[in-house]
Design brief:
Rossmann fold, alpha/beta
Length: 272
Amino acid sequence: MNGSTLRGWTAIVTGASSGIGRSIAEALGTAGAAVHLIGRTPEPMAASAARITAAGGTASTTVLDIRDADALTALVDQVADRAGRLDVMVNNAGIASNRPILDETPAAAREMLELNVLALLTGCQAAIAAMRRTGSGGRIINISSTSAQRPDGGVYGASKAAVSYLGEGLRQELEADDIRITTVLPGAIATNVVRNFTADTVTALGGLAGTNVNVAPGERIPQDILDAAQAAYENHLARPEDIADAVLHVLAAPLRLNIPELVIRPAQTIRV
């Protein structure tokens, strides 16, 4: 897409303070959309907004825990009503784990289900209501995971399987509307989504990068380590920009077409 392809469009991206969400937001802004970034960490979103503005785009940011359904719905309404349209809603925010089902704690499982499933459902419902109210039509992109396709994906995989199920159900319910639902399933990717994985996995990631990772459980892994791991295993780890490119591909399709699901895998499989 060129720099003006999405000119005049309004887009919302959740989980936009890092990784896939941040790359998608910057790609949409660079393509001309007015992008609203939602996340928990203000500094990286401000930096992304500055880059979008420098590229000639428009961006705004909001720090929000999207598990607050009323707050998320109100924000979607506000963005859509101010612009008079909502063209794109990207439900990307999520939390991951690679623990077996029997090892998952109730608190961690609840957080994954609330964020990965219930908050995403709220985002979908709010966006659909806004698109219908403004008569703009649009696209909803839900970021899932290839863990949804594996029986060893744990509670995380189950939460992402729910995302795929909701996406297909909504696709069928919206056939009479100019609203399209696409579920994007990334494979292994070098982002901070792994920060809540087991300590052995985080250590193994550091090994891929040729360094030690000394972070507390749940703490963000330094970007230079993620970049080094990705560079060392180019064919085994996708980049956040690859997922952003896939989203732009979906948005380039006319509303007369459905792209229900898109799987993006690295060329070779990696297990860490």
